Amino acid sequence: VLVGGALYFTNILQSPILRLNLMLKASYHNVTETIENSISEHFNQQATIIDLREKNSFYEKELLSMHQIADEYQKLLHEENTTMKTDANVSLARALSYVRFGDPHRVWLEMDGFDPKKVYGLLYRGYAAGIVVANNNKPMALLNGDVKSSYAVNIGTTLAPGIVRGNNDRRIIVEFIPTWIPIAVGDEVLTSGLDRIFLAGLKVGKVVSITRASGYQSAVVEPYFYGKNPAYFHVITNVR
């Protein structure tokens, strides 16, 4: 009990064990992926597969840049003298394992250039999937369902602002929506970009129900991404 308690609560002991554990997991994934890719490239037209992998990475970044350009263009229509600037950047991150068994909303990641002081936006196939924060100076993904996964969004054609958070469930909640801005079931929820975590206009999900209390509206949202356990994510490392 004493040893188990010390390992669980003491960062001095927990940090090196965690570091070793993640190194072993990363090594295991490297070996298995090398074997799988070698077999795949040998039996399934090696040149075509390599070419498609490179194009997929390129188009993921281009998609983010286009989202930002579209957002800037809409602002230009409403405000003169707006300077258009795009400097978005995205990197690939590999999922290593769940942080704890039984919790599908937190995942250890392997990514280059991680800064423990920053909060990153997490994407899966262009959809907002959660955020990335530091845990023992290691990158940890808080997926959409996690109660601490929170970022700024807009709802529907009225662009009603709100803050989305997880609910330890499949569906997520958007809170602090002003009551004087109309929203409706079926409205699409998009990132607003005002938190400087995500680019504006990335898809989050659709509203399935609405409640009103304490001067605000809240919306229950069916997210486009939830716990699909992908092997890879994309992380927004720079918004502007």
Between the first and last Cα atoms, what is the distance in angstroms?
Answer: 49 Å
Biggest sheet overview: 6 strands, antiparallel, barrel
- In CATH terms, the superfamily of the largest domain is Rod shape-determining protein MreC, domain 2
Alpha-beta content class? alpha+beta
What fraction of the residues are assigned to beta strands by DSSP? 35-45%
Q: What's the helix-strand series?
A: HHHEEEEEEEEEEEE
Instruction: Give the CA-based shape.
Output: globular
Within the CATH hierarchy, at the fold level, what is the topology of the largest domain?
Thrombin, subunit H
Number of domains: 2
Number of strands: 12
Radius of gyration: 20 Å
Low-confidence stretches: none
- Top CATH class of the largest domain: Mainly Beta
What fraction, in percent, of the residue positions are helical? 25-40%
Counting H and I runs of at least 4 residues, what is the number of helices?
Answer: 3
Q: What's the average pLDDT?
A: 84
CATH architecture verdict of the largest domain: Beta Barrel
What strand order characterises the main sheet? Answer: 1-2-5-4-3-12
Task: Describe this structure in a few short sentences.
The chain is of the alpha+beta class.
